[in-house]
Specification:
Among the domains are: 96 residues, Release factor (Methane Monooxygenase Hydroxylase, Chain G, domain 1); 140 residues, Alpha-Beta Plaits (2-Layer Sandwich), CATH 3.30.70.1660. It has 8 helices and 13 strands. A hairpin with an 8-residue loop joins strand 6 and strand 7. It is flat, with a radius of gyration of 24 Å.
Length: 350
């Protein structure tokens, strides 16, 4: 049996791809459109995981072939082969890490919601700092960020914001950020320069594709339209284009105001609602996890997943993995890779 780091079974993947291809060529394959699309998506996902390993194997065979014909006295060629082998080893390490993403929706886009905790301006400013951190992280990865909803704080910062991050494995990486984040610093809003502690919660769910079986009855929805507020292009704040959807049976509320078109905002809000309903259903089926929506942790002491300390020293510590770094400013500027990778490796061992 050939495995990727003991996690991804290459032989099983090849067998599954062949079985999927056989089903696709059979009569009546397209009779059930939803089932056919699911089969195609599963096959594409397996191929996406398998192909990097096959490419690495071919590259290793090529290097072995070159090594076999290289003269021991050819120092330049041996040096180049050594460099190529080091690069291949790094590439394989990256592929092995990607194999840790075993969740059904790890490859999906991520919907991130940030909510300021109790504490007024301090917490709203902290929520704004987290918003900037995730936007910078996404930009560094080459991901696209769409702000779906934005409510500014009364004095400064953000009360809450929801954004969609589009990119390969966006949810797989960013799901590590779900929880309460704590900031310790000398407050810029305190004339006495005292140290303050602020909290904000981060919620991360995958964007659910349209073919996922989530039925929403229009009779169970209350749809309100209103004038958008906060940042926006010319025209966004002058018409009743913002949309708020309440799912009456669950009490879930989503809203979107980033587009000028009320229809586009409704479509985006419905996608977020379906994603939240899907996540809620998954959690109820698993029974191990607390409901994210009815039993949320309090945004206060003792419930934080990560602390960001800017005074009297610089440190960011993840309380789940115990990973910590002194590069607090860089982390707040979007350099989250070390923290996220430590979490993913930790979660894979649980």
């Amino acid at each position: 049996m050939r495995t990727c780091g003991g996690i991804f079974d290459l032989d099983t993947a090849e067998k599954s791809i062949k079985e999927s291809e056989a089903r696709m060529s059979a009569l009546g394959f397209w009779d059930d459109q939803q089932k056919a699309n699911k089969t195609i998506q599963e096959m594409k996902s397996l191929k996406a995981k398998l192909e990097p390993w096959e490419a690495s194997r071919r590259e290793l065979d090529d290097l072995a072939g070159l090594a076999g014909i290289t003269e021991p006295s050819d120092a330049a060629s041996i040096s180049q082969l050594s460099k190529d082998l080091e690069e291949l080893a790094k590439k394989i390490a990256r592929i092995e890490f990607t194999a840790l993403f075993s969740g059904e929706h790890d490859k999906s886009a991520a919907i991130i919601s940030i909510n300021a905790g109790a504490g007024g301006t301090e917490s709203c400013d902290w929520a704004a700092m987290l918003f900037r951190m995730y936007v910078r992280y996404a930009q560094n990865k080459g991901h696209k960020v769409d702000v779906l909803d934005y409510l500014a704080g009364e004095g400064a910062g953000i009360k809450n914001v929801t954004m969609l991050v589009k990119g390969d494995y966006a949810f797989g990486y960013l799901k590590s950020e779900r929880g309460v984040h704590r900031l310790v610093r000398i407050s810029p809003f305190d004339s006495n320069k005292r140290r303050h502690t602020s909290f904000a919660s981060v919620d991360v769910i995958p964007e659910i594709e349209d073919d996922i079986d989530i039925q929403v009855d229009e009779k169970e929805l209350r749809i309100d339209v209103y004038r958008a507020s906060g940042p926006g292009g010319q025209g966004v704040n002058t018409t009743d284009s913002a949309v708020r959807i309440t799912h009456i049976p669950t009490g879930l509320v989503v809203q979107c105001q980033n587009e000028r078109s009320q229809l586009k905002n409704k479509h985006s809000a419905m996608k977020v609602l379906k994603a939240r309903l899907f996540e809620k259903r998954q959690q109820e089926q698993e029974e191990k996890l607390k409901s994210m929506y009815s039993e949320k942790q309090k945004i206060e002491w003792g419930s934080q997943i990560r602390s960001y300390v800017l005074h009297p020293y610089m440190m960011v510590k993840d309380h789940r993995t115990e990973f910590e770094t002194g590069k607090a400013n860089q982390v707040l500027d979007g350099e989250l890779d070390e923290l996220i990778e430590a979490y993913i490796k930790w979660a894979a061992q649980k």
